[in-house]
């Protein structure tokens, strides 16, 4: 069951802190972005999303290295972390001025068949948080080229059970919990509301 109260909590957290959200979805097929846009005013927070259901889509839309997928597979912490980075990087490259952003990336096996030796319910979730006003970013990074070291990541592999839809819904809930956790323990200040 989708936890809509959790989604609203994420929305208000990101809105009050001026953080944009970008999604990179495989097994959820756009469900995360779709549920988020049910909130009035979602456009103030959601920058956009990528549905990258195949390995080819991950490579071409998020610039995932084919060797990474060949080595670890599409359902791996390494791949979802690269997806999370790729989503933030596209946002960074499109922005005139670097803005705070967080991404959600998910890849897994909704079933009924296994994939790459992973059983149905195996899901990798990663979130990447970029806060350009941080001292560390200014000190260590060129403001025109985003490097992975400029982001904070939260990545985990889960084992869910249930139907395809139940697995996709559990994935959505965990993904939003990742965003809450990541934005709670980082140094992003609360944006002054005018």
Report on this model:
The protein has 194 residues and is an alpha/beta fold. The protein has one domain: CinA-like (Maf protein, Alpha-Beta Complex), CATH 3.90.950. Helices cover 41% and strands 20% of the residues. It is built from 7 helices and 5 strands. It has a 5-stranded mixed beta sheet, sandwiched between helices. The model has no long low-confidence stretch (mean pLDDT 90).
The arrangement of helices and strands along the chain is HEHEHHHEEHEH
**CATH-defined fold name:** Maf protein
**Class inferred from helices and paired strands:** alpha/beta
- Strand content is 15-25%
Extract low-pLDDT stretches. none
Question: What are its keywords?
Answer:
alpha/beta, five-stranded mixed beta sheet, 7 helices, 194 residues, 41% helix, Maf protein
What would you say about this model in short?
The protein has 194 residues and is of the alpha/beta class. The chain is built from seven helices and five strands; from the N terminus they run αβαβαααββαβα. The protein has a single domain (4-184), classed as CinA-like (Maf protein, Alpha-Beta Complex), CATH 3.90.950.20.
Layout of helices and strands:
Elements: H1 4-17, E1 20-25, H2 31-36, E2 46-51, H3 55-62, H4 66-72, H5 77-94, E3 101-108, E4 122-130, H6 135-140, E5 151-159, H7 164-184
Parallel strand pairs: 1-2, 1-3
Antiparallel strand pairs: 3-4, 4-5
């Amino acid at each position: 069951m989708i936890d809509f109260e959790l989604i609203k909590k994420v929305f208000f957290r990101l809105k009050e802190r001026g953080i944009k959200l970008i999604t990179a979805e495989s097994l959820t097929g756009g469900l995360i972005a779709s549920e988020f846009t049910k909130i009035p005013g979602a456009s103030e927070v959601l920058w956009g999303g990528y549905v990258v259901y195949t390995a080819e889509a991950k490579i071409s839309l998020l610039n995932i290295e084919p060797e990474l997928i060949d080595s670890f597979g599409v359902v791996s912490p390494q791949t979802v972390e690269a997806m999370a980075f790729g989503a933030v990087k596209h946002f960074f490259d499109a922005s005139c001025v670097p803005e705070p952003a967080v991404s959600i990336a998910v890849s897994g096996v909704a079933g009924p068949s296994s994939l790459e030796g992973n059983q149905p319910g195996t899901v990798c979730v990663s979130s990447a948080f970029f806060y350009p006003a941080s001292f560390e970013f200014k000190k260590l990074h060129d403001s025109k080229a985003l490097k992975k070291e400029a982001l904070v990541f939260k990545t985990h592999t889960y084992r869910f059970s249930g139907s395809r839809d139940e697995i996709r819904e559990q994935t959505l809930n965990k993904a939003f919990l990742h965003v809450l956790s990541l934005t709670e323990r980082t140094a992003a200040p609360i944006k002054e509301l005018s």
